[in-house]
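Here is one chain, start to finish.
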Amino acid sequence: VQLVESGGGLVQPGGSLRLSCAASGLSFSSYIMSWYRQAPGKERELVARITIGGSTYIYIDSVKGRFTISRDYAKKTLNLDMNSLLPEDTAVYYCNARDSRIYPPRDYWGQGTQVTVSS
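Its structure:
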C-alpha cells in the first residue's frame, strides 16, 4: 500500500489549498479514507473522514464549513479542499487509509505534506 500526498505549501490567511492523496496497492473502494494533521508540539488529530461509499463525512468542529473531503474512485484519489485558511491550520497533513474489514482495523499512512498559513 502506498499513499502519496501533494498540494501542500505556504498560503496567506484566508487563502485556499487543495490536498490530494494518490493511493495504490489497495482496493481503494474498500477503505475508509481520512485526513489527519499534526502541528508542532501537538498530537496528530483527525481532520476529516469519508466512508467507503462516500456518503458519510466527519469533520472536526474547527474546519466545518471551510474544508471539504472527497474521493475519486476511478483515480483512486482522496482530496481535501481547504478554504478560509487560518494560521492555526498550519500543520503536516497526512492521508490515512483504514481497512475495517479486519479486526483490529489496519491503518496505512502517507508521508505527509506541510501546510503553512502565514502572512
